[in-house]
Structure formats: structure tokens, C-alpha cells
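Human: My hope is that you can spare some time for a protein that puzzles me. I am handing you a single protein, as its sequence and its fold in C-alpha cell form. Could you go through the record with me and say what the backbone is doing? Take your time, and here it is.
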Amino acid sequence: MKIRKILVSQPEPPNPKSPYFELAKKYNLKIDFKPFIQVEGVSAKDFRHQKINILDFSAIIFTSKTGIDHFFRICCELRIVIPDTMKYFCITENVAFYLQKYIVYRKRKIFHGKARFQDLIDVIIKHKEDYFFVPLSEPHNAEIPELLDRNGIRYAIGTLYRTISSNFSDVKDFDYDILVFYSPVGIKSLKENFPGFVQGEVKIAAFGPTTACAVEQEGLRLDINAPNPKAPSMTMALDEYLKEFNRNCK
């Protein structure tokens, strides 16, 4: 049987030209979008309890657009004015461009990696004299502090938001051919919402090494892994997989 129905554990893209819609059209698929996780911002009061003074830092590391949103939200609530001298290190160019929502982009010192945190570390090492603030979620990727420690970077992590499992009690039909995950918390949410889930012929796609690791730790089979040398994005990885899978089904 060919792949007909895919569930992507992210909000539906607002852009009608999203590669996901192109993929659906190309392979005559039904693609549903439903986040497996929800984000809850930490209150200014709770952030104060972490005893972190943002103005003590000379640089900030952003691993996501969500991190940017909650960083500037906290700054606004605490009436903190970020100096123009602050340096920004972002995991990708796309995340870096998102800073334009809050700062005058061309007048700031902004650096970015390619996709992995390891790529960004190579940039950060060139600025070892800086003291880095790393706004993250709870839970967060353990690779980040490990790489910072290993390279002798002076930093502090602040929890600005938390990721929790979404409630799927309203979902009656969970009959998908492919499940696409972007975070380990999404895998946890799958097990919490569907404790009797048996993978069988269902394909699982994971973006990033920590998500892939979470799939295998839960005793599930990883069928599609992105990014990879041939496919830097999830949609490209799905395209490659569908092309091969459908060819074998003929």
C-alpha cells in the first residue's frame, strides 16, 4: 500500500507555498498538522527566582524562534533594556533573521550556524571572551551544555518556557501512515496520549539527533531521519523516502 496520510507534529504552516503542501500535492497525500507539545512561558516572578541578571551577559545564544520570543517577553516584563553592544548567536540563519522582530538587525552583532549546535559552537569558540546567556526550555537538549562545557565556554542557562504534552483526547481516528516528530517531547507525548500505541507498519520520521534517539529509546523504529547528507530538511527527507517507497510498491 502507498503512503496516503501523514501527521506532522507542528502547527500548520501559514505560508501556502510551504514545502509540506507541495509534498501533499506531488504524492496525493493528506497531511494533518497537530502539535504534540505546547509551550508555556515562565512568569517574570519565576524567572527572578532563577537569580539571573541578563545585563551581566555580553552575548546570547538562541536555538529557536520560541526562545527569542520568550527572551524579549521577559525583558519587556522586567523592563530590561538590552544594550546595542549585545552579541547574538543563533543556531541557523533563519532564526537569526527572526531577531528583526525585536531589534534593528543591521546594527547588531549577529552570528549564526548552519543547522546543528555543533556548527554554532565553532562560531562561539571565536568569542571565548564573552559571557553567554542561553535561554532554553524545560526540558532542554543535554547536548547544548555538554558542548559548551567541553569547549570551555563561560555561560549560564535560564529557563524561559516549558514544553508540555498536548492533549489528544479529541482525536478519534489516529490512522496515519507516517508520524513526523521534531522534538523528544513529541515522542513522550505520543506515549502519554496513546499508551497502547503499536507501531506496526506506521513509519516514524524524526528531525535532529536527540529526537531520533528518543524514538529508539522508546523502543520504536526510526524510518526517516533528517537532516541527512541528501536531505537537510524534513520535507526533503520525506520526499526521498516517499519516492523510494512508492517505487517499491508498484
Q: What stands out?
A: The chain has a mean pLDDT of 90. The two ends are 9 Å apart (CA to CA). The first strand starts at residue 5 and ends at 8.
